[in-house]
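Thread title: Can someone regenerate the structure for this chain?

I was given the following input by a collaborator and told the matching structure tokens would be attached. They weren't. Posting the sequence so someone can regenerate them.
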Amino acid sequence: QPFLTENWSKIQKNLKEILKSKKKVSRIEAYDVSNIQGKEATGAMATFINGQPEKNFYRRFKIKIAKKPNDILMIKEVLSRRFKHSEWGWPDLILIDGGVAQLNATLKVKSKKLKVKTIKIVALAKKKNELYIESQKKPVLLKNLSREIFNLILQLRDEAHRFARKYHLKLREKMLISPKG
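Best answer:
Regenerated them for you:
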């Protein structure tokens, strides 16, 4: 599936309306975590600029917290570590794979860093493809948004998922080849 290129200014205008923001959205970071029962847990950050993936800005995180499956703590760890790297540049928008709990966890991490307070955060819940938007009470159904926004959000989510899963599988493979203990 090709990544979005057509009419970025229209997409940007739509995004600003959805986010209720005056700020331009050009850099978007999407996050996901991957693990099996907490083992070899990884996090990934995929970065898109003007609707295009920028693989130079992709980052992977080996999760360090307790080896239990806890997506909320894992996403908090990934974002906490990411926010320590101002040299990577700041996104205008962050998309988290998850629902309201992941959004709230991310907002807690964000609230501790003054430099990132202008970044808008959204979370996409898989079950009904509900988009939870920072400082908006009700989620928006992805299918009710424009086709361009629908495609963009799914591409971001899928790319972060692919990247997190790829790293997770690499770590599992490494563990199987040389198990510890």
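The chain has a mean pLDDT of 87.
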